[in-house]
């Protein structure tokens, strides 16, 4: 970006990171046991809970993914955030309250408390950790893509400052630190987005493109394959119902009412906030000549075209804050999976050690990924394919069967890899076949177990 001064960006980034780090360490200073470290002693009220739920979703997927999809595919760019908003609505109309009532620590615990299998719980936790790790890796890749066009050879140093601080305050402060920094980061993101919107309107950029919302350039929603609609709309909605980083928030809420109210507020906030990167992506698409191929992300191109160094610097810091607000949540959720599902009674030192290890591992894996959206989509699809059906079943059915859960999870895993291997563009993996296979396996295995149970009862008589 030509309008960004590297020195100004470095000062702003270091200042923002330092404030977030200090706030996180201060908020988590009293986290002296495992429950307080991972669940904030189950005392989160509706306001901090709402803000941290929103912060978990304002990451690379919403900010960069929405504007990129809007630039290339039109209004379909909203589908990712619409899917997440739909998931929050479902959570707000009952599922979030049900999760809080269970008084658990991880979603994988459901497989032991309801299905009676510790091995199944660990299998589910492994899948959860793999998914969260993929999402965390995607955030690392996104931060590198944001910084590299401006920082050049200094990218690694700025990455080290950003991610080192994030890991440190999450490591020492746990969920309390994550929630405190999330609230600050949401404020930074909203302020930068509204400032950019104001500059666009004051500069009459919106009048230069009267058809910005109904653009007819090649690549509109009419050309988007049906399976991609499923990926960007269905997967986030389904994953919101089972993902550990959201469930961890509901487990940490004061009561059922707080969990439900926060989920509904988050649903509205996510959709409204997503309209801004959607608009910016469509605006960048309209301002860029149809024959010109973008050399960087369309949101960065728009910032460059505005010619305001301070605004561009603020937006870059907001983008990095968005990445951080999702990354620290994922890091804390992964650590909780490892500690609760694989560890012993444990203490705070073990929790901090695990948090450090998973954070460093994600940094090491990031160079293996090329596309942010590919990593995010595949990560969502993996967990939903295997765990969505058995988790939803045990939340709403009185009687469930262990073999049905195993069958559903394994068939979903098989369907995921079969679809993945048959798809050349891995970000376009169709999630529906694996999900339907998992559902069919659960139904058939449940009917079989019911029949066997009934037969055994008859013989006993």
Order of helices and strands: HHHHHHHHHHHHHHHHH
Strand content: under 5%
The gross shape turns out to be: globular
Low-confidence residue ranges: 206-222
Radius of gyration: 22 Å
The helicity comes to: over 70%
The class by helix and strand makeup works out as mainly alpha
Mean pLDDT: 80
Please, how many helices? 17
**Biggest β-sheet strands, sense, barrel:** none
End-to-end CA span? 79 Å
Strand segment tally:
0
Can you tell me about this structure?
This protein has 17 helices and no strands. It has 461 residues and is mostly helical. Helix 5 packs antiparallel against helix 11. It is globular, with a radius of gyration of 22 Å. The termini are far apart. Mean pLDDT is 80; it is low at 206-222.
SSE layout:
Blueprint lengths: L5 H22 L6 H6 L6 H12 L2 H14 L5 H24 L7 H4 L4 H34 L3 H48 L23 H15 L3 H8 L4 H32 L10 H9 L2 H34 L5 H18 L6 H25 L5 H21 L9 H29 L1
Helix pairs in contact: 1-8, 1-13, 3-8, 3-10, 3-11, 3-13, 4-11, 5-9, 5-11, 7-8, 7-13, 7-14, 7-15, 8-11, 8-13, 8-14, 9-15, 11-12, 12-13, 13-14, 15-16, 15-17, 16-17
Descriptive terms for the model:
461 residues, 17 helices, globular
Question: Brief overview, please?
Answer:
77% of the residues lie in helices and 0% in strands. The chain has 17 helices and no strands.
